[in-house]
Write a structure and sequence with these properties.
The protein is mainly α. It has one domain. Helices cover 63% and strands 9% of the residues. The chain contains two helices and two strands, in the order H-H-E-E. It starts with a helix and ends in a 7-residue tail after the last strand. The mean pLDDT is 80. This is Membrane protein implicated in regulation of membrane protease activity.
Length: 107
Amino acid sequence: MTQPDRLIFGSGPSARRPANGFVASVMWLGGVIATLAAMTIGAVLAVFTAAAVAVIALFAGALVFFASLAVRARRRMTARNRRGDDVIEARKVDGAWVAYGWERPGR
């Protein structure tokens, strides 16, 4: 036996003896139970992760939808503001409407 083998397997009276009989079956059963518990916990965590990703995608989609509505509304408002030469200002003075801004400069 080489030096690394002694470190891995141990040597002398403190070396681990192979389990046999009742102890081996109890250890095997414990390993199966631990494996099933780990698989169950992993599956539950995977479901929670998938649900979180779905919720994030839903909120991101709603955000993009509302952002597109805002951009469309902004484009419509800027198109209306470009027609500024057709708009006049009117105020009510003593029961009569007085319009301002309808005179064109240069006349």
